[in-house]
Design goal:
- By secondary structure, the chain is mainly α.
- It folds into 2 domains: about 10-45, no CATH class; about 45-190, Alpha-Beta Complex (Nitrile Hydratase, Chain A), CATH 3.90.330.
- Helix content is about 50%, strand content about 10%.
- It contains 11 helices and 4 strands; from the N terminus they run H-H-H-H-H-E-E-H-H-H-H-E-E-H-H.
- A two-stranded parallel ribbon has the order 1-4.
- Helix 8 (about 125-135) packs across helix 9.
- It is globular and about 55 Å long.
- It binds fe (iii) ion (FE).
- Fe (iii) ion (FE) binds near residues 106, 107 and 157.
- Fe (iii) ion binds near residues 107 and 109.
Amino acid sequence: MPDHALHSHLSDTELRVRALESLLADKGLVDPTALDAIVDTYENKVGPRNGARVVARAWVDEDFRQWLLRDGTAAIDSLGYVSTQGADIVVLENTATVHNMTVCTLCSCYPWAVLGLPPAWYKSFAYRARAVKDPRGVLAEFGQVIPAELEVRVWDSTAEVRYMVLPQQPPGTEALSEDALADLVTRNAMIGTERLGQDRGRG
Ligand code: FE
């Protein structure tokens, strides 16, 4: 839909939310910095911690890992992270030969139950357009070094299917507790724009 690219990337709902926010701020009813803090919390702290616990469980529990890969929705529900979006979650396993990366080329479909709110860049036109065309270039911009022999697979989310990446467990972490392992798992690693055990990228 080329017409879409020419216009604002904000949906009607986003425009209405933005209008309400500025109205409330103008009237002194809300503090915009407090709103930013709430969004930051759900984007970076609360939300992705659910997914990190799913990943850590898969690393320590082989039966759970297999269930997660077979039926991500049910395995994730069993930990109490129930999707309210009515969408299935498919979990993609990174291996020594395959790196998975997720995008929603149409809008910003995202597995909220495990990752919380999508980051602004995930919703940007640049990411949505380039993730499919030039995934290695995008990964490089996130500071990720992807060896040429590693196959990069890009998965386009929809309203019905949301994807989450199961990162590889970093070497040398076998003795860590499940909680300590969860602390190693970043939001971007579960989107697929970071490989754990490398230098942290930006974004
Ligand atoms: Fe979408």
